[in-house]
Amino acid sequence: MRLNSKFKLPKIIGHRGVKDLAPENTLESILKAFELGLECVEVDVKISKDNVPLLIHDDTLDRTTSGAGLVCNYTFDELMNFDAGNFFYKSKTNIKIPSLSNVLKIVSKNKKYINIELKPNEGFEIINVDKIINEINKFSLDHIFFSSFDLKSCIRLKEKLPDAQCGFLNDDFSLINPKDTIDICKKYNFISCGIDLNSFSKSIINDFINHNIIITVYSGQNISLNEAKNLWSNNVTSVFVDDPTEYLYKS
Questions:
Q1: Is 6 domain-assigned?
Q2: Which of 9, 15, 19, 238 is catalytic?
Q3: Is the residue at 15 inside a domain?
Q4: Beta partners for 55?
Q5: What is the CATH number of the domain that holds 64?
Q6: Burial of 80 (0-12, 13-18, 19+ CB in 10 A)
Q7: What does each of the 251 residues of the chain score in pLDDT, given as a tens digit?
Q8: Residue 131 falls within a domain, yes or no?
Q9: What's the pTM value of the predicted model, to 2 decimals?
Q10: Pairing of strands 144-148, 166-170
């Protein structure tokens, strides 16, 4: 199955669903994004101890669930015992860590798009990508975009799915400078580079654009509409937004 070559990233992508409005990386957060009218959500995916692809950002359970310790030390059924909404609502909920399979069903049913960020458990990068690929092969791939900070994961994805659209994420140009990042993207046919808002500059963006590499921008805090407008005016393709309310009613 081949990706649709006409797939284009939208200007606004919901970050971990819409993480300022609902618990991040949950079905609730994803459905909230779609209810608000967003066409695409970004989610973080890694595997459980028994190799089930699931949504969670951190290596550990501590921040976003009632559990503790490394995600990879638990089977998926064991992870279902933890509350994935308490950290957001500050009270007990029935919200669970979702499997990638269930998320893809929702995306497909709503005819929306998804950005899967590959978040490997250290030392398990290859099997992480392989198990995710096994899961997505059950679905249409024309609405899926991949990205990762982990170069090994991006390379493996392109080896297994040459037609997949993948972006390399770089949050520190002091470690991999813009020129080397461009070379990496060109060598492995990555269509984009994702950068932190704090790394934004017109000259950096222009360097990537001149090499036909599109730029996406994320931030540790919600990107305001005014900031987004400035980014778009400087040829940034997509911004990751934690709360799109301002965009929907003021743009």
A1: no
A2: 15
A3: no
A4: 45
A5: 3.20.20.190
A6: middle
A7: 334 445 679 999 999 999 999 999 999 999 999 999 999 999 999 999 999 999 999 999 999 999 999 999 999 999 999 999 999 999 999 999 999 999 999 999 999 999 999 999 889 999 999 999 999 988 877 889 999 999 999 999 999 999 899 999 999 999 999 999 999 999 999 999 999 999 999 999 999 999 999 999 999 999 999 999 999 999 999 999 999 999 987 64
A8: yes
A9: 0.95
A10: parallel
Q: Which domain holds residue 214?
A: 20-250
> What domain count does the chain have?
1
Which residue among 11, 49, 57, 152 is the active-site one?
57
For residue 42, what are the contacts with CB-CB under 8 A and spacing of at least 6? 13, 14, 15, 16, 114, 115, 117, 147, 240
Catalytic residue check, 57: yes
Is residue 186 within 8 A of residue 174, CB to CB? The reply is no
Q: Are 140 and 1 in contact (CB under 8 A)?
A: yes
